[in-house]
Amino acid sequence: MIRRTLPILLGVGLVLLMGWTARPAGSGLEWRIAFVATYAVGFVLLLVYLRSAAVSFRRLLVGAVLFRLAALPMLPSLSDDGYRYIWDGVVAVEAEMSPYAARPNNPALAEWQDEPIYARMNSPAYYSVYPPASQLLFRVAASVYSPWGWVASWWLLKGLLVAVELGGVLLFVRVVGAHAAALYAWSPLAVVEIAGQGHTEAVVVGGVGLLLAAAGSRFPVRSVGATVAGLAKLYPLALLPATWRRDGWRGILASVFIGVALTVAVWTPGAGEHVRESLGLFLGTFDAYAGPYRLLKSALYPAVGEGAGRVSSGLLAAIYVLAIAGGLLSDDGTRLALRRLTVLVVAGFVLATATFHPWYGLPVLMALPLLEHKKWLLWLAGWAPATYIGYEWEPAFLLTTAIGWGGAAMLLAAGGPRKAFRVRASR
Q1: Residue 117 falls within a domain, yes or no?
Q2: Is the pTM here over 0.85, yes or no?
Q3: Are 345 and 366 contacting, i.e. CB atoms less than 8 angstroms apart?
Q4: How many domains does the chain have?
Q5: pLDDT value of residue 134
């Protein structure tokens, strides 16, 4: 009994320690190093454990729930995105205004600009860029803001995200089995970034789990999964042509209905232009842990100068779109082809993005059991939290990027680049 419970208790202890060491930027380099070290110990121990022990469905669920409960008390510390999430919800619920309609520093929102969430959020001079499915969760969380404050809204939001995430994980168990699913479900990266920091990749995990587990269903659940995931993070919308092929007209109708219902609730005149304006903040500006982008930008700088960032973003986006188009053209309607496309979409996004935050790797981490050759992507996603050190010591951004992408490149070369996205035939 002790041998069975000790690993889970140890995992809970490591999650609590990560929560304690996850201090906001500016708290000191030693705290970030302590957090990354604790995370690394947890990740390595998980990999060692999964090599030698079997994980049943019940054990998977108990561990996943306990680890997330241990992380729920965390406030936004590794990222300040959580403050913006709650702000968007408050604007919709309290101010009865679309988050796409006004920048947070707009005088029309002065009544809420003395609130802690305003002082702590990022980019108050930019419109919100979070898609409609995310905005729905933000609004639900903000429903308790007025009586109980932003912390209650924060915990409610994380509770919703964890519920969606675990739903996706439990569905994914049907595809790969409990032991393989534990790589994601018990990962300290997933636990901290969703239950701890409340990132909306949880919706992508839930949607992808629904999409992959829906083989043979009479209902258009594949299209529902892709639509909801895409309305949380946009790039999963690339999977819709493949799901519509399998779900037929029911899938198209389901996607249109969900898309319209969620978008109408937050849309406002000029919303498209406002979102494009804010997205311009990211394109060519930030390049944290984005190896291909950084290399291409450096190569183009002598010829393009300050525009190298935007040109590089555009080229990588074009390559990503072409790769997805090729995958869709070769789609033969089989379960294997859908898995291959899913891996291409989620992994291709982190390869092409100009900014690779640690939580961007969560859908990739979830999809790893589908791959025959997974070590390079496991290293890439697993190393990403080391970039948190860069917020206290800037040279760490370049160092961690070189180690993360360099290590992934060596593992990819050792396993054979042609096998990079080769998917297992079946469970």
Answers
A1: no
A2: yes
A3: no
A4: 1
A5: 97
Instruction: Report how far residue 249's alpha carbon sits from residue 414's, in angstroms, rounded to the nearest whole number.
Output: 44
Does a structural domain hold residue 215? yes
SS3 state of residue 255: helix
Candidates 321, 145, 142; CA nearest to 234 is: 321
**DSSP SS3 for 1:** coil
Token pair recorded at residue 299: 């190569």
- Taking the alpha carbons of 238, 300, 413, 182 in that order, is the dihedral positive or negative? negative
**pLDDT tens sequence across 85-99:** 999 999 999 999 999
DSSP secondary structure string, 199-221? -THHHHHHHHHHHHHTTT-SS-H
Q: How much is the average pLDDT of 43-59?
A: 95
What long-range pairs does 392-397 form, CB within 8 A, spacing at least 24? 392/25, 392/26, 392/27, 392/28, 392/29, 392/31, 392/32, 393/29, 393/32, 397/288, 397/289
Its domain, for residue 20, covers 2-78+153-266+281-419
28: in domain: yes
| Residue 329 placed within a domain | yes
For residue 42, pLDDT beyond 90: yes
CA atoms within 13 A on the CB side of 60: 23
Would you list the DSSP string of 298-325?
HHHHHHHGGGHHHHHHHHHHHHHHHHHH
Q: Residue 217: pLDDT above 90?
A: no
